[in-house]
Each structure stands twice: as structure tokens, then as C-alpha cells.
Amino acid sequence: MFRKKLIIFAFTAMLLCIYATPVFAEDDIPTVDDVMGQITGGKQFAVTLDEFTNIIIALSINIIRVLQTIAAPVAIMAMILGAITYVAGLVTVNTQLRRAGSGSMAGSIMFFIVIKMAPVIVATIEGFVK
């Protein structure tokens, strides 16, 4: 019990020290804008909402393409494991195993359908955004 209180006290002391440090700091601490200005040579970068939306949409489409390439093998493996679990539940007369197996099979089918329908879903969402 004492050890737990000591650890809590140590973390509290560290947090207080961390939060109190800026009070004693010098006034010439560079801000994030100053540091970014040094890194970029004084250029400021700005992204409009349309550009940001296009970047996010392109990124989501790339993620969906990757998921579509691995969706079929993952869904097939989940279906096989679910079928094995379901058969084991049938053999052992265990209703929980049967439920888990049927749920796994249903989940893998839904996963496969959603991933295959993802371009339609993304197009629909993109239509709502624009």
C-alpha cells in the first residue's frame, strides 16, 4: 500500500514540475510558428478546405484499396475458423461455441460485403460532403 502511494506521489510531483517549468522559462522561447518558419525558410503553408477534403478522400481510397486486397483472404480465414468453431460446438453440444461460430461466419460475410462495397460507400459519402 505504501509503495502504491509513493508511486502516485512521484507521478504527481513529476506532473507538477512539468507544468511549473514554463513559469520559470525565459521569454525568448521560440513558438511553433518560429520553428516552422526556420524549417521551411520563412514560407507558410496553407491548405484550403477543398484541398484538405481531396487529400482525405484520396487517402481513404488508398486505404480501401489495401483493405480490398486483403479482405478476401482474411474473410475466408475467419469463415473457416468460424465453421470449425461451429462444428466443435455441434460435436460437444455446446451452444456457446455454436453461437460464436455462427457469429464469426456472419461477421466475416458482412466484413467481406462492406469491403467490396466500399467504393460505392465512399462515393456516397463524397457526394454528401460536396
SSE inventory with pairings:
Blueprint: H1 2-20, H2 32-40, H3 49-92, H4 95-116, H5 118-129
Give a summary of the structure in a few sentences:
The protein is mainly α. The protein has helices at residues 2-20, 32-40, 49-92, 95-116, 118-129. The chain contains five helices and no strands.
List the defining traits of the structure above:
5 helices, 82% helix, 130 residues
Largest sheet: none
Q: Strand fraction band?
A: under 5%
Radius of gyration: 27 Å
Give the uncertain stretches in residue-range form. Answer: none
Order of helices and strands: HHHHH
Helix content: over 70%
Per DSSP, the total helix count is 5
How many discrete structural domains? 2
Basic shape: flat
Count of β-strands: 0
Q: Could you give the distance between the termini? A: 58 Å
Structural class: mainly alpha
Describe this structure in words.
The protein has 130 residues and is mainly α. It has 2 domains: 1-44, no CATH class; 46-130, no CATH class. Helices cover 82% and strands 0% of the residues. The protein is built from 5 helices and no strands. α3 (49-92) packs antiparallel against α4 (95-116) and α3 (49-92) packs antiparallel against α5 (118-129). The longest helix is centred in the middle third of the chain and has 44 residues, at 49-92. The model has no long low-confidence stretch (mean pLDDT 80).
